[in-house]
Write a structure and sequence with these properties.
Blueprint (H helix, E strand, L loop, with lengths): L1 E5 L5 E4 L4 H12 L5 E4 L5 H13 L2 E4 L3 E5 L10 E4 L4 H14 L3 E4 L12 H7 L3 E2 L7 E4 L5 E5 L5 H14 L3 E6 L5 H13 L5 E7 L2 E8 L10 E3 L4 H13 L4 E4 L12 H8 L2 E5 L2 E5 L7 E3 L7 H9 L4 E5 L11 H11 L3 E5 L2 E5 L7 E4 L4 H10 L7 E4 L11 H7 L3 E5 L1
Parallel strand pairs: 2-15, 3-14, 6-7, 10-11, 18-19, 22-23
Antiparallel strand pairs: 1-23, 1-24, 3-5, 4-5, 7-9, 8-9, 11-13, 12-13, 15-17, 16-17, 19-21, 20-21
Helix pairs in contact: 1-2, 1-6, 2-3, 3-5, 5-6, 7-9, 7-11, 9-10, 9-11, 10-11
């Protein structure tokens, strides 16, 4: 599908879609709780549905309703043996479900598509093997899982995906014994682990957080006590998604009139709520009120920013940087190479293809701002966030913008272009 956009600033108000990150975690907790749970999750996406599909394959009842999901849990002893779990192109689904099925000990085959086979599983893979499981070769699907993962201590470096930590924490109640997930300092993407702990707490499990030292290293310890079990809260509301709201808020900074996004928790553990601070640093005017955020245009100036803990904000921040005065350097972005696309390459290519000036310098992205871009053709590279980046950049182009492969927004935000139009965007979808 190709999205053809005629440049026009965006303005107005929208409600945030439910957080994909929170929905994954809530679905998994609900699927193994002690009683059914109703999840308030007004919209879904390909990634969320991938997790729901995997849980159905294991025997949980996961039914899409008008307002979200109704989940009837499956008891550990009733989990289907040797189930086939299709993770789609969702890295979160794969990295969460792998330790979960290892903890259940019923055997499973995990499938994936797109770039998922190329996205790393180490050192999570090795920790699961060390805990008593047999796994098929990395980088090949189906990934076979045999044996049952033992409780105990799991060691992970802090500079790898926080999804590994989350997967082990979600699996811990299913093992039966106590688990310590120890992560070496400094811990990148810590806010995503905070989301996991908050979700587990809502389902009756308090994750104890401690610090320790071992072999001269400092460690962050996440402890799930022996006997911990998931208890259904009856209903659970999935909070609004800051990662996707960030694109609209950035569009407000780049436009002529404000953009307001409601349905957001200003105290959320989601690290991407720091988009408001980032936009203020660029020079936009940010207004915070209960449950919503408004961003008004300002004189935008380039800046330096460490994005190690907010990798999903890099595409919208790159769009802001492309039209800001001076130079912006987004540092500590090396992990972007392992996303749905190599985002160091695809983020910069998106800016350059539309007439901007962006380069990769080691693990940094350097962008020289310009008041207005030319327009042209951008390739979404099969990456939902690159497609959204191009759409937001189009609002500051002289000429029309064509985005190839625009269907990839369905991975996280199927209604993205509908909401784009609702804010005044002029877009036609073809093919």
């Amino acid at each position: 599908m190709e999205a053809c956009i005629r440049p026009r600033p965006l303005s107005g108000a929208l409600r945030a879609i439910p957080s994909k990150s929170a929905a994954h975690r809530a679905l998994i907790c609900a699927a193994f709780a002690d009683a059914p749970c109703v999840l308030d999750c007004s919209s879904t996406s390909e990634d969320i549905e991938a997790t729901a599909s995997c849980l159905r394959a294991l025997g949980a009842g996961v039914v899409r309703t008008k307002g979200g999901y109704r989940v009837v849990p499956v008891k550990a002893e009733d989990v289907r043996a040797d189930a086939l779990l299709d993770c789609g192109e969702s890295g979160s689904t794969l990295r969460f479900m792998l330790p979960v099925v290892a903890a259940l000990g019923r055997g499973a085959n995990l499938m994936g598509h797109g770039r998922l086979a190329k996205r790393p599983l180490s050192p999570l893979y090795e920790e699961i093997v060390a805990a008593g499981c047999d796994l098929g070769p990395q980088g090949e699907f189906p990934l076979r899982v045999d044996g049952r993962m033992r409780a105990g201590e799991f060691l992970l470096p802090g500079n790898v995906s926080s999804q590994y930590v989350t997967g082990l924490l979600l699996a811990s109640p299913l093992i039966g014994g106590g688990c310590d997930v120890k992560v070496s300092e400094p811990v990148q993407s810590l806010p995503y682990i905070d989301i996991t702990c908050r979700t587990l707490e809502a389902f009756g499990i308090e994750v104890l957080r401690m610090s320790s030292e071992r072999d001269g290293k400092a460690w962050r310890v996440f402890h799930v006590p022996k006997g911990a079990r998931l208890v259904s809260p009856g209903s659970y509301a999935v909070e609004g998604d800051w990662s996707n709201a960030a694109f609209w808020l950035c569009a407000g900074a780049m436009g002529a009139k404000p953009v307001t996004v409601s349905g957001l928790d200003l105290l959320s553990p989601q690290g991407d709520r720091s988009v408001l601070g980032a936009l203020a640093l660029f020079g936009a005017h940010v207004v915070r009120t209960k449950g919503e955020a408004t961003v008004e245009p300002g004189r935008l100036k380039g800046c330096a920013m460490d994005v190690g803990s907010i990798p999903d904000l890099v595409p919208p921040l790159a769009a802001i940087a492309a039209v800001s005065e001076g130079t912006t350097r987004l540092t500590n972005a090396g992990r972007l190479r392992l996303k749905e696309s190599d985002r160091l390459a695809s983020v910069t290519a998106c800016v350059n293809d539309l007439g901007g000036h962006a380069t990769v310098d080691g693990d940094d992205i350097v962008i020289e701002g310009t008041p207005e871009l030319e327009g042209g053709v951008a390739d979404a590279c099969g990456d939902h966030r690159i497609c959204m980046e191009a759409a937001i950049l189009a609002t500051r182009c002289k000429g029309p913008v064509a985005i190839r492969g625009a269907e990839c927004v369905s991975k996280s935000y199927p209604a993205f272009f509908e909401d784009y139009k609702a804010l005044g965007g002029d877009v036609e979808l073809a093919g």
